[in-house]
Amino acid sequence: MRNEATVLHADLDAFYASVEQRDAPELRGRPVIVGGGVVLAASYEAKARGVRTAMGGRQAREVCPDAVVVPPRMDAYVEASRAVFGIFRDTTPLVEGLSIDEAFLEVGGLRRLVGSPELIAARLRERVRTEVGLPISVGVARTKFLAKVASAVSKPDGLLVVDPDGEEDFLLPLPVERLWGVGPVTAEELHRLGIRTVGQLAELEASSAERLLGRAAGAHLHALARLRDPRPVVTTARRGSIGSQRALGSRPRSMTELDVMLIQIVDRLARRLRDRGRGCRTVVLRLRFGDFSRATRSRSLRLPTDRTAVLLAAARGLLVAARSEIESRGITLIGLSFAQLARGEEVPEELPIDWGDGARIDTVFDAVRDRFGADALARATHLGRDPGWSAPQLPEHE
Questions:
Q1: Which residues sit in the known binding site for Mg(2+)?
Q2: What are phi and psi of 392, to 5 degrees?
Q3: pTM passes above 0.70
Q4: pLDDT tens digits, residue range 10-55?
Q5: Options 1.10.150.20, 3.40.50.720, 2.60.120.260, 2.60.420.10; CATH of 172-225
Q6: Annotated binding site
Q7: Superfamily of domain 241-390
Q8: What are phi and psi of 276, to 5 degrees?
Q9: Which among 45, 96, 102, 106 is annotated as catalytic?
Q10: Distance of alpha carbon 123 from its chain centroid, rounded?
């Protein structure tokens, strides 16, 4: 077990909104909402007024009528993310990306060359601010879990180091919602049992936590509450999947709306496959229902492919199969992943190649979008839609 605080959790603050404020000086200091129909991101000025991610656009404008609402610009966010991750990897080779705007960094081997973890974190924050123009919060701790909690507590635009000797004093008084894996449903159950702080959960025996919360969840959360998290920072040369997801808010969604969103996600992910010379063997649909429970559905293809039409057909089949659950329980998030990725040479040629199989359409669309931008061409089903539909919310980082 590590005895020194050498793990950094770096998390960009209100990422999408911060990019908008960076690029439009007139938005700085003002409440900014990214996304129209659903709030994809909110500046801290908007959050202070009660605006939250995944809130419906109408509700957000009611609680913050003077907010500036801007459409998402996914290309700008991806470009900013790449610049920030470049700084991460320039800081240490041990970088584990969690999403487009956050990562773990292990800096334990850099003390003699660069300085203490706290000094490294401070320099990283300064570089992101100076070179990319964005605020970032960093937590430094002995474990990944504690580093992530520390960065959240330090927000916005902060740096917090949790000394190994002060871990209990830092963690135990915090609300149980700070534990990695405690969502609204689990928090409500813990509150019903009279458990509101991490310390109260830590006081339980492990067997009691497992009985109350289920074996896997109870064991995991109890271990975190007892400061046990042996997971190292893991970096891989090549991801085995790519994906995106969209928060939908709480209002009912028709299957037609969900189909349009699915088309958008498939279009973007299929293009990313082709850009990287990859093919996909397994399509995975991820759903979060109105009661905050989650479901995952997958379909494996006979051969790996990068063709949009084939991948869309598989994704649509999974969505249709989940229709009864969606209609009875509601839906608040839809996501899609392409897993079991294959290299380009493993993707077989599809013959005969004609307009019916979509190969030429994919090639033409990619070329036009490369030259004139991602929004240069759009499907007819997207015309007239809310601007917030133009991009999935949280693409996984590669």
A1: 11, 101
A2: -60, 160
A3: no
A4: 999 999 999 999 999 999 999 999 987 889 899 999 999 999 888 8
A5: 1.10.150.20
A6: 11, 101
A7: DNA polymerase, Y-family, little finger domain (3.30.1490.100)
A8: -100, 5
A9: 102
A10: 25
